[in-house]
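Progress note, project year one: complex with 2-acetamido-2-deoxy-beta-D-glucopyranose.
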Amino acid sequence: MLEKQLLFILFILQTTCSPSARKLSERTLRKLDSLSVNTSAPWEPLRVTFEYVNDPNTQTRTFLDSIFSIAGVYFQKHLLIRRSSSSLTVTETIMSEFQGFIDLPSDMLSKTYDTDLVLIKCYQVFYVSTMNNDSDNTLASCAPIDLDSSTGRPVFAGILWNMAYSDPTTLTNVGFEAQLATAVHEMLHGLGFVSDLFSKFYDSVDGTVYTNSSSTDANSVILLQTPRVVAQAQKHFACSDITGVPMENEGGSGTAGSHWERALFYNEMMTGSDMVSSFAITDFTLQLLQDSGQYIQQLQILSIGLLHS
Ligand SMILES: *[C@@H]1O[C@H](CO)[C@@H](O)[C@H](O)[C@H]1NC(C)=O
Ligand SMILES: *[C@@H]1O[C@H](CO)[C@@H](O)[C@H](O)[C@H]1NC(C)=O
Ligand SMILES: *[C@@H]1O[C@H](CO)[C@@H](O)[C@H](O)[C@H]1NC(C)=O
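Model obtained:
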C-alpha cells in the first residue's frame, strides 16, 4: 500500500511540474535571421552575472543566491565563449523584450555591465524573478532575450522561478540538490538550449550555418541532426544508422522541442519534467552546446592547445 502511494506521488511530481523554456520573441528571432556570424574573436571563459529583479525576502534571496552561484560557477569553469563587445547595456528595446515575462525595474534602463573589468567581468546577464503560484505547474522557466550581434550568443536571459515549489524553510539536502539541478537546467535554456535556435546553429570554425539542423518526423517529433549530437548518439547507442536525435514531443510549447525525449534520456538534466534525484548532464547536452557554434568546453580546448590563440 505504502509503495503504491509513493509511486503515485512520484508520478504526480513527474507529470505535473516542469522546468521549462520560453519561446523566443519575434524580435529576437529577426535579429538571429539577420546575423552574420563573425568567428574571429578569441575563445575566453564565460562570465555570468545574476540580477534579482523583484525583491524576494532575505531567506528566498539567500536560497536563490546559493543555487545560482553554484550553477554559475559550473558553467564558468566549463564553457568558453566568444564576445564582440566590451560592455553590455540594457536598452529600451531589451527592457521591452523582457515585458510580459519578467518586468525589469526602470532603474535597470541604461545599466551597463562591463565585460573587461578584471573583477566583475560579465559576458551574460541572467535576470531572476520569482513568483508564487501553486496552481501553475511550472517550477521555473527561462528564455534568452537578447543576442550578441556577431555570434548570436544569448547575452541577456530571464529566469522566472516559482517559489511555490521551493520553500527554503523546509528544504532538505535532497531537495536542495533538485533545486540546484533546476537552476542548471534553466541556465542551459538561457545559454541557448531552445528549439527556436536550432536552425541557426553553426560551425564554430567558419561560421557556416548547418543546413537541416533539425527535421520533423511523421509523428511530429523534432529530430536534432547537428553533427556532434548525431555522432554522440551513434556512439552511445552503438548504431551508425542514427541520423537524428528525438526531442520531447509532449508538454506544451515551453517543453516540447526544447528538451531531450524523456522516454529515451530518462534522467538527463535537459529532459522536460521534474525528477526526484539522480540528474545527469551528459555529453548529449554538452555536444548540443558545441553544435550551437557559441560554446566550446574548456577542457577540450585546453587539451588541444587553442586557449592562447
Ligand atoms: C570580426 O571580429 C573581429 C574581432 O572581434 C573584428 O576585429 C572584425 O572587424 C570583425 N569583422 C567583421 C567583418 O565585422
Ligand atoms: C496562477 O497560475 C494559474 C495557472 O497557470 C493561472 O491561471 C493564474 O492566473 C495564476 N495566478 C496568478 C495570481 O498569477
Ligand atoms: C535538407 O533537407 C531538404 C528538404 O528536406 C533536402 O532536399 C536536402 O537534400 C537536405 N540537405 C542535406 C544536406 O541533407
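Confidence is low (pLDDT under 50) at residues 1-15, 302-309.
The domain at 2-303 is CATH 3.10.170.20 (Elastase; domain 1).
No further modelling is planned for this target in the current period.
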